[in-house]
Amino acid sequence: MANDQPAGRRRYAARMPLDERREALLDAALRVLGRDGYGHLTISAIAAETGVTRPVVYDAYGGIDPLLHALLDRTQQRAADAALALIPAGGVPVELDRWLLEAADGLLQAVQADPETWRPVLGLIDGAPPLVRERIESTLVLLRGFVADVLRTNLGPESQLDVEVVAHSLVALVQEFARLLLVRPDEYPKERLLAAYAGMLALRRAT
Amino acid sequence: MANDQPAGRRRYAARMPLDERREALLDAALRVLGRDGYGHLTISAIAAETGVTRPVVYDAYGGIDPLLHALLDRTQQRAADAALALIPAGGVPVELDRWLLEAADGLLQAVQADPETWRPVLGLIDGAPPLVRERIESTLVLLRGFVADVLRTNLGPESQLDVEVVAHSLVALVQEFARLLLVRPDEYPKERLLAAYAGMLALRRAT
DNA sequence: GTGCGAATCTACACGCATGTAGTAATTGAC
DNA sequence: GTCAATTACTACATGCGTGTAGATTCGCAC
């Protein structure tokens, strides 16, 4: 209170070239998102979080939609990069059980390393609008496609397994693990999840 | 247009006792939800969908929050009833593989029979606010608990399986199947999903 | 058929977020 | 130091949803 100029003009925020300002706005938007969900992700809230007035946001992005689009681009890029890094190069054979474990491990590590990027992707942010859902789904489609490829090239041609459904299942499973890891890390640490996962895979041979 | 009284008073909607009106409002809300998502689930939209004016909604429920609460009560009850009907009575032993298949089959049938109830539960409606998320989660907690019980009483005491994580996994898996069934029924009919599921279970013995 | 209570409607005041037009301050170049 | 371009701010108009107070109509009981 003591710092306010009683009825004067607002103090100007530090100036930035447009590109930097855009990045700063996206960072602020991500913070708002994590704190309050999509329902409160408004131009006003982003401007306030950035420490700037609304016209700045309009000048930088033109509206909430282009801004969200840009935020999704950035997030999707980061998440997809991390996920696709775990997929072996096309056609290279791997030992399937071993790869399933390593890929899950790698993804859980990525999630732990950058939770703020992954929480939106895993559907842990309230109020996701259609645009967001579509983005996430498109990334998952890509991911499932790669998983299916790995399965096909490593299953032996006599396998009767429905590769597409199995790919859906594996991705859904790892997503659930990632959610558990982020939401209840004390009860479900990575090691526990991976051990259980290995146990389930091992059933294929035991019993 | 031809039916409008040029500048007259609005035609009164058919009157209803309070209880009926409440049910009608919930039905309308569910339709709005399925069509437009939570982001458009407003008092105005519900009133319009019902064919009455907003004060009627306020008289019946007092606001959007109590109304949503009531809608969730109804939906949760229906979904939980259907799901818990598939759980064998406590302590009764079952043949595990057989039960896993039958329970999945039963749940997918329930989903197909009443998709409008299940779409919100499966997270297929855009813009779900925290209240909704919490409700769904509490139902899932209950369900996972029962699944874990079944696993425990039928796994043989020498099993090293992490029952809680496996319960999480199974529920997540069936949820994914249900989503596929609702979103892309042509590509993923119930029979295909169940066959793939059986195939995955069968891996436990084959290979 | 006539009341009278219940159910519905109209009308107003408000809050909050959106966009935009015009103004003012900052900052780098000269 | 001065100027001009860039960046940020103020101020206004608007749309849409929320609540609520008070008037109006419906329809059952008698």
Structure write-up:
The structure is a homodimer of 207-residue chains. Chain A is mainly alpha-helical. Chain A has 2 domains: 45 residues, Arc Repressor Mutant, subunit A (Orthogonal Bundle); 131 residues, Tetracycline Repressor, domain 2, CATH 1.10.357. Chain A is 68% helix and 0% strand. The interface between A and B is medium-sized, with 35 and 34 residues. Chain A binds a DNA duplex (30 and 30 nucleotides) through helix 2 and helix 3.
Q: Helix and strand succession of chain A? A: HHHHHHHHH
> What's the helical proportion of residues of chain A?
55-70%
CATH class of the largest domain in chain A: Mainly Alpha
Largest sheet of chain A: none
Give the oligomeric state.
homodimer
Strand content of chain A: under 5%
Q: Figure out the total of helices of chain A.
A: 9
Secondary structure topology:
Two copies of one chain form a homodimer.
Chain A: H1 18-36, H2 43-50, H3 54-61, H4 64-84, H5 96-113, H6 115-121, H7 130-154, H8 163-183, H9 190-202
Helix pairs in contact in A: 1-2, 1-4, 1-6, 2-3, 4-6, 4-7, 5-6, 5-8, 5-9, 7-8
The first copy, chain A, binds a DNA duplex (30 and 30 nucleotides) through α2 and α3.
In short:
The structure is a homodimer of 207-residue chains. Chain A has helices at residues 18-36, 43-50, 54-61, 64-84, 96-113, 115-121, 130-154, 163-183, 190-202.
Key terms:
mainly alpha, 2 domains, Arc Repressor Mutant, subunit A, homodimer, elongated, 9 helices, DNA-binding, Tetracycline Repressor, domain 2
